[in-house]
Amino acid sequence: MSDPLVSVVLFVHAPYAKFLASSLGSILAQSYKALDVIVLGDGSDQVKAALERFKDDPRWTLWGQDGKPFLQAANDRMRECHGKYVATWNSDDIYNVDHVKLLVEALERDPGVGAAFDNMEYFSDATGDGASMPDLVVPQERAKDLAASRLSVEDIFTENFMTGPSSIILKAAVDQVGGYDNDIYLNCDLHWFYRIAAYFPVRFVDYIGVRKRVHALNNTAVNPHYEYGLNELDHIRTHYPDVYQRIGKTVFNKKLGRKYFRLGLYYERQGETDKAREMYRQAMLLRKWSLRYSWEYLRSTLAAK
Q1: How many angstroms separate the CA atoms of 305 and 301, rounded?
Q2: How many CB atoms lie within 10 A of CB 292?
Q3: How far apart are CA 294 and CA 63, in angstroms?
């Protein structure tokens, strides 16, 4: 039997075009060859020029946003793709050679799961030679345990090990759950994975399949985004109540309370004391037995008088 087709949606805009050769090259050089790569670009000359070297490989096509917001265009491409499995990819990251092969094998061995992901390591352009940084998304001592069995939505929610570049999703799961939510910009991958894992178990493969480039344009790796993380969870709670219930109120509120508290600390460091106090209050309401949250709210309230 032939290998099932994997459709890879590769996101790229002009500022990232300088990374495209190594990124797309790493996809096309995969040991797994049944690939359909959809390059979703911004119509820029920089992106078109970066693709020239790959013109003889028939496995990729270039698409534009057609005037639509980026996430909506990405959803259109995922909905229309022909692969049994779907992957989303950033143009500044790199696939290691067996990434797709090992994830497809995991999915084919356990057809009841909706997604699989592997490990990811960070590297920085600042090193000059692109040498790997020591940080792995999944610590080595944790990886074997995660690979031993299916992962539930609670696992995905509490661990936050699953990332966009390191994942392959069953197309049928995308069709059932939907794609990215257009209301969520940063952290849209996590929001999506919580929704997928609420209905489908997930597999982890103990392999470093992705190298994540850390650079000045990489928002999620180098910039604070506390507000986005909080909004992502609040959005799940208010717009996807079934996902909220499947994760579990206690587990969900514990994490959301921690997000409110961290945002309060961030606001306080910025001198925005009124905002900080409100965040502490929200954290306290979610975790009524947390002495720390209650104390910080009381302290900030007394300081305001």
Answers
A1: 7
A2: 12
A3: 51
Q: What is d(CA 115, CA 103) in angstroms, rounded to the nearest whole number?
A: 9
Q: How far apart are the first and last CA of the chain?
A: 73
Domain ranges of the chain: 6-221, 248-304
CB 63 within 8 Å of CB 39: yes
85-90 and 167-170 beta bridge pairing: antiparallel
Longest dimension (CA), the chain: 73
**Rounded distance, CA 21 to CA 119, Å?**
22
CB 167 within 8 A of CB 196: no
Q: Determine contact, residues 155/246, Cβ cutoff 8 Å.
A: no
CATH number of the domain located at residue range(s) 6-221 in this protein? 3.90.550.10
Whether 293 and 287 have beta carbons less than 8 Å apart is answered as: yes
Angle, nearest 10°, between helix axes 226-239 and 249-269? 150
Q: Other CB atoms closer than 10 Å to residue 128's CB: what's the count? A: 7
Q: How far apart are CA 145 and CA 173, in angstroms?
A: 25
pTM, 2 dp: 0.90
**In what helix (H) or strand (E) does residue 194 lie, and over which residues does it extend?**
helix 188-197
Per-residue pLDDT of the chain (305 residues; tens, 9 = 90+): 589 999 999 998 888 889 999 999 999 999 999 999 999 988 899 999 999 999 999 999 999 888 888 889 999 999 999 999 999 988 889 999 999 999 999 999 999 999 999 999 998 865 444 444 558 999 999 999 999 999 999 999 999 999 988 999 999 999 999 999 999 877 789 999 999 999 999 999 999 999 998 866 665 544 456 788 899 999 999 999 999 999 999 999 999 999 999 999 999 999 999 999 999 999 999 998 899 999 999 999 998 87
Give DSSP secondary structure letters for 211-240.
EEEE-TT-HHHHS--HHHHHHHHHHHHHH-
